[in-house]
Amino acid sequence: MNPEFKISKKVYNHAKSIRLIVTDVDGVMTNGGITLFSSGDESKTFHVRDGLGIRIAQSNDIKVAFITGRKSGVVDIRAREVGVEEVYQGAADKEIVLDRLMEKLDLKTEEVCYIGDDLMDIPVLSVVGFPATVPDAHPEVLSRVLYVTEAAGGKRAVREVIEIILRSQGKWDEVMARFGSKPQYSRE
Questions:
Q1: CB of 114 within 8 A of CB of 129?
Q2: Which letter, b or e, does each residue of 69-103 get, where b requires 16 or more Cβ atoms within 10 Å of its Cβ?
Q3: How many CA atoms lie within 13 A of 19 on its CB side?
Q4: H-helix or E-strand containing 35?
Q5: Contacts of 43 (CB under 8 A, 6+ apart)
Q6: Is pLDDT at 84 greater than 50 in this prediction?
Q7: Would you call 23 helix, strand, or coil by DSSP?
């Protein structure tokens, strides 16, 4: 995400209260492609910057969860790699899963960001405080969200949303201080 990218006040206002980011997997964490092998195994490609973004969110008291309609061992592996404990696969009704998760974590809908890209995400996108999607989402999804990422699914879209949330909450400067806050070189 371009740091100078203009985010509307409305987006920032909704992002300020987020304590949980829930994301779909296929089409959001990945580009939506699934490679199936004759052995029955599958392959998905995740972006490393989304992983670091998830870790950064967690270190700033923002929980992250995955809710996906498919079941895949690859998703469990990725969740372990990035420290996501709340993973719900094979979710035919994502809204029911989200309701249970919010109850478990004692959260209100306005404290939840959901990133989805297809029709089965619409019920969840319709109830959360910060609904977001990727640019190539289904048109019905695009018309129902507060924010559409610049990055495509699988190409840092989750990280983009995380950075918006952290910036809106005034935590981004602290994040940058951990990594070295001042640029050393100019692009001019």
A1: no
A2: beebebbeebbeebebebbbbebeebbebbeebbe
A3: 10
A4: strand 35-36
A5: 34, 35, 37, 74
A6: yes
A7: strand
